[in-house]
Amino acid sequence: MVLTDQPLFLTMELIKKYLLNFFKGMAMGAADIVPGVSGGSIALITGIYQELLDSINSFTGANIKLLLKLEVKKFYRAVNGTFLLSLLLGILTSIFSLSRVITYLMDEHPIPLWSFFCGLILISAFVILREIKRWHLGVIVALVIGTVGAYFITELPPTSTPEAAWFTFVSGAIAICAMILPGISGSFLLLILGKYEMILKAVGDRDVVTLALFASGCIVGILAFSRVISWTLKKYYATTIGLLSGFMLGSMNKLWPWKVVTAFRTSSSGEQKPFLTSNLFPGQYLEQTGLEPQMGMAIAGFLFGIFLVIGIDQLAAYLKKS
User: Rounded to two decimals, what is the model's pTM?
Assistant: First the structure.
């Protein structure tokens, strides 16, 4: 899709729109920091998922030729440059500014944090399902398949995978697909594929070859997969929405606040990090860990996630009318 109506100079109305997109990008970046939460879920919740897919799909051969010919303005308009730039700046801002905050909350206050994401994802799935005007058997089947599929993906143990260069490329393609797929975390899939530590080590060691292979896989994966998702949304909208909502519901298995660690992994710095966990009921959590389940904080976090999504939904409806 070529977005030729993208203006290079912005009106005040468009500035407001892209400032809002910047904050949506920040929300996506914050989600991507947390293992088990997908930035794609936030894109779907905030109503920019289809535009994001269309913008990615606009990187066609014809538009790339514009860039090679140094026709930068035409290329910028064709790929919806202002939208992508505002979103990317928001994501990067969030990653660099909120990563320590999110990491601190995960380490020191995990129960209210995971409860918040549970509330956010649960209500989001229902808000998105509301978009389906006509329910049929295919939608119900897709919803069940998405829920069960995401649940089992979050239960997968790490596997022994090839060390070959081609698999690094494949890992990049798979991880980036998950990052734009609501409900499934790309970093979690890298853990399952046994490549999470390798990529982190490559970043630390500035291993240009490994990172280039991984990045190439990401580019190929996102350009191909975004077209598949975009096509299914246009051809089978209700069924695809049911499947994506199912992914979000199934991913709540990974977000459950009360867990006990059953296995650890060694980080690139030699530190032991929780890897495999088992979900518990609050009473079981108290019995097995001796720690308070913090029910009050958990309920507060859960409700905050719900009201945040309702607020975003109401704001989006207001902006459409104004």
Answer: 0.71
